[in-house]
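ok posting inputs for the zinc ion job
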Amino acid sequence: MIVSKSDILSIRKKIDWDFYIEKVKPIVEEVKRRGDEALIEFTMKFDGVRQKYLRVPKEEIDQAYDLVDDEIIDALEIARENIERFHSITAVDRDIKIDFGDCILGKRYTPIESVGVYIPGGRASYPSTALMAGIPAKIAGVERLVACTPPDESGGVKPLTLVACDLAGFDEIYVVGGAQAIAGMAYGTETIEPVEKIVGPGNVYVTAAKLLVQKDVAIDMPAGPSEILIIADETANPKYVAFDCLAQLEHDPNALAIVLTTSKDLAENVERIANAEGGSLNLENLKIVIVESIDEALELSNKIAPEHLSIVCENAEKLLEKVKNAGSVFIGEFSPVACGDYASGTNHILPTSGYARIYSGLSVETFMKHMTYQILTKSALNRIGEAVIRLAKAEGLEFHAKSVEIRLKEE
Ligand SMILES: NC(=O)c1ccc[n+]([C@@H]2O[C@H](COP(=O)([O-])OP(=O)(O)OC[C@H]3O[C@@H](n4cnc5c(N)ncnc54)[C@H](O)[C@@H]3O)[C@@H](O)[C@H]2O)c1
Ligand SMILES: N[C@H](CO)Cc1c[nH]c[nH+]1
Ligand SMILES: [Zn+2]
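and the output
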């Protein structure tokens, strides 16, 4: 568990995506070829149950409210309110129209019309993910919002997940998980109409399937097994650090927790507490490294690009500006990742496996695209026309040049 610095960067090589893509390829091909029949067969094979139905009927969703404790519904409402507030305020999907005098240039956002959300449901169930994806999607204006989630033991969907989907505004809910769900949403079956974009987290099979289908359908990002990296000095509470690690490790045997600390004492205490409390988890994936300085920790963290970065040391807030690559950052001892996972308001669907170097977490913009537009006057054409003609000719594109020349010649 306490490992040397040289080991730490090699951890990223652990998930071999090519290997998992090869594994899910036959599943995706079968669903493409045989539709619903394949969805049912793979569900029997991987989830060990037969679905009661593929699409959850409306009455079942309505009844779900009676099967969930009021206190849990209240908790969902608190989470929903905070997620909605943060996502509405931070949405940068603002249409812009600029009048430059002789021309108007602009940028206009429109929602993606149909989006499929994968809501995990293998080891744990994830009603929180329904909120994290559904709320920004509806703020963006997605018309057709589809959820796919694996069956519970009864072959249906857990009432709490149904309530969360309903509160978030999902239009269709299907009982299917894994790579077969991703294929169903990407290519369509007799029951599922294909969608234009697929978002949401999942295990290695789900994430590999998203990587595979992304040549045909847009995806958000690879959001695979959870990760946390904690930068801590001697002021950090070892109990808090240990439990934040265990919290992310409990998601998946492939989850990863890294602690980079300047304190040998802290390292030893975190190791001791994790061993004592986290016996049921894959503690092989908890790596604790003693570093020379907090700056060195930040440098390593930027290379690792963790899904969650927690900074618990003196002047932690000041360090934020040095963070280049991370999905979401948690600063100070009272900001456990679990709060971002559920209810503080930021999104928990985040890039993993080092993809935080190039992808962002889910937001309202994930569900939108923008177009630019222009309205040029004759004087704008006069102003830039000659330059356009020269550049078009230099590229050997005669008709581009001509299309401007003919306009310039006309009085
Ligand atoms: N990065 C994020 O934003 C984020 C957020 C939440 C959860 N997560 C991650 O989501 C994941 C949830 O995983 P889970 O397993 O609990 O649920 P899941 O729904 O992702 O996966 C369950 C499905 O995996 C498929 N499957 C299982 N074994 C298989 C096999 N051998 N071959 C092919 N398919 C197989 C089954 O079809 C099953 O329905 C965890 O890794 C968790 O860390 C990530
Ligand atoms: N930690 C997960 C993202 O890696 C999100 C989550 C959902 N529920 C609990 N946690
Ligand atoms: Zn979590």
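notes: The mean pLDDT is 96. The first strand starts at residue 96 and ends at 99.
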